[in-house]
Write a structure and sequence with these properties.
By secondary structure, this protein is mostly beta strands. The chain is built from four helices and 63 strands. Strand 48 and strand 49 form a beta hairpin. Keywords: Bacterial flagellum, Cell projection, Cilium, Flagellum.
Length: 813
């Protein structure tokens, strides 16, 4: 039995040496495998053959020890060494290394959780972090707001090039100098349109009017008979006859009719003149001198074409001398509808011109005024007014007379007679009237250009782009309907021009302006109004708050798609005064939409102790329900006597974003602490920083020691994309190796303790690095020599045993 057991014992030694050589070979083979943990072989003895149990000491004997013969060696354990491997920097941000205890958790087939120290990960086509054999790295994911969701482990994703993110502005920082020198901003810029008319009030179209030269009564056809009896004194007489229209106005006088008569006779004038054109001149007036006189006075009237007999019994009307003066010049006329105590209509188109030389002008065909509707809208006109220019003034028209519809009127009034506005009843034609009021429909607003009138607005979309302080405001739109009024337009322009009127701070109300407009007095309140039929807008005080509306500020697209440019002909009637500074900047809402904001500062007051500026904020991107207001804030900035910033009031700006799927309102703070109040020659203001950003694309990522995967976007923003979770085991040596550097939970490992790096005794994660194999090549080579020696030694035992057995077999010889 001894030699046989020696063979089997040596065989166990060979087997153990082979196992150790296998393990050492595996260690050396994986000396360059990332995350590999070397193993070692632990031996134990096989069963023992007991020859004697030994004896305890007695009085006669000191005792003997047991006699046992070992039966060989066995591999008790092949244990992994989970000691830390060397950390090596990598060029890939997805390469990860664990410092100290812990394992990456990856997802195997059918959702099985496996564990590894190999931190070489890459992105697959689904932007998931996977290892070289395709297992997905697990951790905590995020929701749509990039908040970690710590309810379950999910595959971590890094969607490079596809994920976008924006950041809403929360703070804006300003720098500059708001000097106490300069003028206090106490004068506003005032702009005013030309006078605008109301088309709802009708005007005569002049289509029925006829303007012509008044007929001249012919003396050549008048027959004179002096044979009749009468009481005329003997002497020489001069007669003149003139046709009279239905309004009682005389046409051009005839040439003199000279008659001599003896005492006791009468003078008969027959075949009196008629209008050769058949116009309405039903009467002839007869004028005569006194006996042997030269001045003509009214004598009497007769029917046109009839006979008049001067018997001497009818006295001359010395209060009615003959008006022999005639008109000479190039004349045009306009007519209006009129009713005493009511606004006159706007005038008709020009009637004429008519060039007359030493004559008179007849107008006929005066129209009937229209009947107003039951709802009103214009006066119930009952007469017509006639206006005429002067021979030397073609642009202004003066009142000639008032007539009834259907009348014929002959104009014989001289320029001097109608142009003397100091005379009661004389007046200049208001070619713009009647003017607009706040309730005038916008589609009825008229603009006069010379003698023509243009409807400025139609139903459709009106866009407006004004300028403030020389800088363009954003474009806003007003929908014009049949019910839109002038007041709606005033409110729209005031709001979209950022004219601030609301009293946000009762202790520091919006300042009013001095009124330096000629002929006016009192204070001017910021806002829009109607002034003498014109639109007027008063800006907030300060030069850079001055509102401008140029010729192309309005653009109207009607319902058929035609585009016009309504020109209200705004002009400046008062220039703004006051030191001011402005800064334009861009902020971002929660969707990353860029919003233009302008902050204007004006010097409000100075004292022995402080300098106070007022700031105004405008944004054309402000979108509030039922409002077009672009004013988004105002407040005061105070500096002390050393020019140091003291405080700013109401410094939070609110931009409404209704109608846009971003968070509304966008709120951000204006930080003026970097602004100085020192005495410079000019005020300056600049927005130097804001913390919002436009949408950016995810273009890189990093992994922190806490395992958080942070995405870096093209706009500079970082967002959490997930967090790596690690696991540790009470007995990691008990893990079940699955190959490919993967381990599975074993029977003797205990439950995995999972957590973020740095928690629960778990090590930290180093991004952009890998953990190298912890194989100790030198030690393994020494162990290899020892294992080889062990193998050779056991081989010699087998050889020696075989030789002894052979000797025993040879004894029979």
């Amino acid at each position: 039995m001894g030699l046989a057991s020696a063979l089997t014992t040596a065989l166990t030694g060979l087997s153990a040496a082979e196992t150790q050589i296998d393990v050492i070979g595996n260690n050396l083979a994986n000396s360059q495998t990332v995350g590999f943990k070397e193993s070692r072989v632990i031996y134990s003895t096989q069963f023992l053959q007991t020859l004697s149990l030994g004896a305890a000491p007695t009085a006669d004997n000191g005792g003997t020890n047991p006699r046992q013969v070992g039966l060989g060696v066995q591999v008790a354990e092949i244990s992994s060494n989970f000691g830390q491997g060397t950390i090596e920097i990598s060029s890939s941000p997805s390469d990860l290394a664990i410092q100290d205890d812990g394992f990456f958790i990856v997802e195997g087939a059918s959702g099985e959780r496996l564990y590894t120290r190999n931190g070489i990960f890459k992105l697959n086509s689904d932007a998931e972090l996977v290892n070289s054999t395709g297992q997905r790295l697990l951790g905590y994911g995020i929701d749509e707001q990039f908040r970690l969701q710590q309810s379950e482990l999910v595959p971590l994703t890094v969607p490079l090039g596809t994920e976008s993110v924006a950041k809403a502005t929360e703070n804006v920082t300003f720098e500059g100098t708001l000097t106490p020198l300069g003028d206090v901003s106490d004068v506003s810029q005032v702009i005013q349109s030309q006078v605008l008319g109301d088309a709802q009030v009708p005007s005569p179209d002049g289509a029925t009017m006829l303007v012509g030269t008044a007929p001249t009564a012919s003396a050549s056809g008048v027959n004179v008979n002096t044979a009749g009896a009468g009481t005329l004194p003997a002497g020489d007489y001069e007669y003149r006859v003139v046709l009279v229209d239905s309004s009682g106005q005389e046409s051009t006088y005839s040439n003199p009719i000279d008659v001599s008569v003896g005492a006791g006779n009468s003078i008969e004038l027959s075949n009196l003149p008629v209008d050769a054109d058949g116009r309405d001149f039903p009467t002839v007036n007869i004028y005569r001198t006194d006996t042997n006189g030269s001045d003509l006075f009214f004598l009497g009237s007769a029917a046109a074409g009839g006979t008049f007999t001067d018997t001497g019994t009818q006295p001359l009307d010395l209060n009615t001398p003959a008006e022999l003066d005639n008109l000479s010049g190039n004349y045009s006329y306009m007519i209006t509808y009129f009713k005493q105590g009511e606004k006159e209509s706007r005038p008709s188109p020009l009637l004429g011109p008519l060039n007359t030389v030493n004559g008179r002008v007849t107008l006929e065909g005066f129209p009937d005024p229209p009947v107003p509707p039951e709802s009103g809208g214009f006066p119930d006109y009952d007469s017509i007014r006639i206006y005429r220019n002067l021979a030397g003034d073609q642009n202004n028209f003066y009142l000639v007379d008032t007539v009834q519809p259907g009348d014929t009127y002959t104009d014989s009034k001289s320029d001097e007679e109608i142009a003397d506005l100091t005379q009661s009843g004389n007046q200049l034609l208001d070619r713009d009237g009647p003017t607009i009021d706040s309730n005038t429909l916008l589609t009825n607003v008229l603009r006069r250009d010379g003698s023509t009138y243009e409807n400025l607005f139609k139903t459709g979309t009106l866009s407006y782009t004004g300028r403030k302080g020389g800088r363009a405001l954003g474009t806003k739109e007003l929908q014009i309907s049949e019910t839109t009024t002038v007041q709606d337009l005033i409110d729209f322009v005031s709001a979209t021009s950022g004219i601030q009127t609301a009293q946000i701070d009762a202790q520091n109300p919006i300042p009013t302006s001095e009124n330096n407009i000629q002929g006016e007095s009192g204070e001017l309140v910021p806002g829009g109004m109607i002034q003498d039929g014109a639109l007027r807008f008063v800006s907030n005080t300060g030069e850079l708050n001055g509102l401008e509306i140029d010729l192309t500020a309005f653009r109207l697209e009607d319902e058929t798609g035609n585009i016009t440019v309504p020109n209200l002909a705004f002009g400046t009637v008062q220039e703004a005064e006051g030191t001011s500074a402005a800064s334009d900047l861009i902020v971002y809402d929660t969707l990353g939409v860029p919003l233009n904001v302008r902050v204007t500062t004006t010097l409000e007051r100075t004292s022995d102790e402080e300098t106070v500026y007022r700031w105004y904020a405008d944004s054309a991107s402000n979108q509030a329900a039922g409002s077009d207001n672009i004013a988004v804030g105002t407040g005061l900035i105070t500096f002390d006597g050393n020019g140091n910033f003291v405080s700013a009031t109401n410094s939070t700006v609110n931009i409404n974003r209704q109608g846009v799927p971003s968070v509304s309102p966008l709120q951000f703070n204006l930080d003026f602490s970097g602004v100085s109040g020192l005495a410079t020659s000019e005020a300056s203001l600049a927005a130097t920083q804001q913390d919002g950003s436009a949408p950016g694309v995810l273009n890189s990522f990093i992994v922190g020691e806490d395992g958080v995967v942070r995405g870096v976007f093209s706009n500079g923003i970082t967002r959490d994309l997930g967090q790596i979770q690690l696991a540790r085991f009470a007995n990691p040596v008990g893990l079940d190796e699955r190959g490919s550097n993967l381990y599975a939970q074993g029977i003797n490992t205990g439950l995995p303790v999972m957590g973020a790096p740095g928690e629960n005794g778990i090590g930290s994660v180093i991004g952009g690095a890998v953990e190298l194999s912890n194989t100790d090549i030198g030690k393994d080579l020494v162990d290899l020599v020892l294992a080889s020696t062990q193998y050779r030694g056991n081989s010699r035992v087998i050889t020696a045993s075989q030789q002894l057995i052979d000797e025993l077999l040879n004894l029979r010889r």
